[in-house]
Amino acid sequence: MARGYMVISGFGFEISDTAADSQSSPSAAATDGFGADFLASPSNKTFEEKANYVEEKIQEEDMLLMASYKKDEQEENHKWYLDSGASNHMCGRKSMFAELDESVRGNVALGDESKMEVKGKGNILIRLKNGDHQFISNGYYIPSMKTNILSLGQLLEKGYDIRLKDNNLSIRDQESNLITKVPMSKNRMFVLNIRNDIAQCLKMCYKEESWLWHLRFGHLNFGGLELLSRKEMVRGLPCINHPKQGCEVVFKFKAKFMDALYNLLDGSIDDNTKFEDECRAIFGAQSYVLFTLDKLVQKFVKHLHAVASDETDTKLLQLHAYENYRKLWEDDLI
């Protein structure tokens, strides 16, 4: 390790798209993933004062004692290292920031006396193992960084209990609920693979109330939300003014879903249960889309039984049904 480095660098876990085995309660957290409240900031006046102090000191060049760990840049995109000497969370990819204040500028000095320029400060939206979303808050944007850093000091100031014992690192919240416990890697580091979620609806949900309602109703299209608002069918639903906007989450999985539907109609998938399982594999068991998807699949299966019962020109009926369902998908979900 390079001269002057004093590192407890990192802890690791995998946050996958489909994590049906995880629990939503922090007290029942999985051993390789964050609980829902990991990055939520408890009320802590000291933390706010410290954060302001660090922001002022950045102009005076903070010292960052970090691990040097070089790998392929693409592999490092989702890897975060916990550093005991880092003043702040730091990231080198601008696209990962849901919100970025580029007026914050300064320099960060490394243990080998080299410097890296800070070109902003903001929040990074991530997807937790249980499907929830949280922010890595107050992180510095440093374009020249090839690795992402989570500040151990920042986590401690938020009130979390971090312990190293028996080659494992554990993190507990203020109520002693286990958030994560992970083994040390062969190179004596604890590496986190955090999934960054930059879909438009998820980036905008904390800025625009209409996007929040879009998520709350399982990615219901804005035309549907606008109708609910206009008819006053939902108490508290605001006026929705952009019904033509689409959701990237739905666009992302639309093609795969339509392929699965075509295979079901074509006979490649001969069991309705297998079709439903394939849909869940596409969207993820903990996805916001799940509620809408389940209702849609139930409607599909009901109509498919009617189609299958008529053996006359079945292929034509299948193609006709496929086109109808494709239109239903476009009208109801985008």
Labels describing this entry:
334 residues; alpha+beta; three-stranded mixed β-sheet; 19% strand
Task: Write structural notes for this entry.
With 334 residues, the protein is an alpha+beta fold. The protein folds into two domains: 26-198, no CATH class; 201-333, no CATH class. It has ten helices and 14 strands. The strands form four sheets. Strands 3, 4, 7, 8 and 14 form a five-stranded mixed β-sheet that branches. It has a three-stranded mixed β-sheet with strand order 1-5-6, with no helix packed on it.
Helix coverage percent: 25-40%
- What letter string, H or E per element, gives the SSE order? HEHEEEEEEEEHEEEEEHHHHHHH
Average pLDDT figure: 63
* Helical stretch tally: 10
Largest sheet report: 5 strands, mixed
Count of folded domains: 2
Question: What is the oligomer described by this structure?
Answer: single chain
Please tell me how large the radius of gyration is.
Answer: 24 Å
Note the beta-strand portion: 15-25%
Query: Which secondary-structure class do the elements indicate?
Result: alpha+beta
Q: Give the N-terminus to C-terminus distance in angstroms.
A: 52 Å
Uncertain runs are: 1-72, 285-293, 311-316
How are the elements arranged and paired?
Blueprint: H1 45-57, E1 62-64, H2 73-76, E2 79-83, E3 90-91, E4 97-101, E5 106-110, E6 115-118, E7 121-127, E8 133-141, E9 148-151, H3 152-157, E10 161-165, E11 168-172, E12 178-183, E13 191-193, E14 195-196, H4 200-204, H5 209-216, H6 222-230, H7 248-266, H8 272-283, H9 289-308, H10 314-333
Parallel strand pairs: 1-5, 2-9, 3-8
Antiparallel strand pairs: 2-13, 4-7, 5-6, 7-8, 7-14, 10-11, 11-12
Helix pairs in contact: 7-8, 7-10, 8-9, 9-10
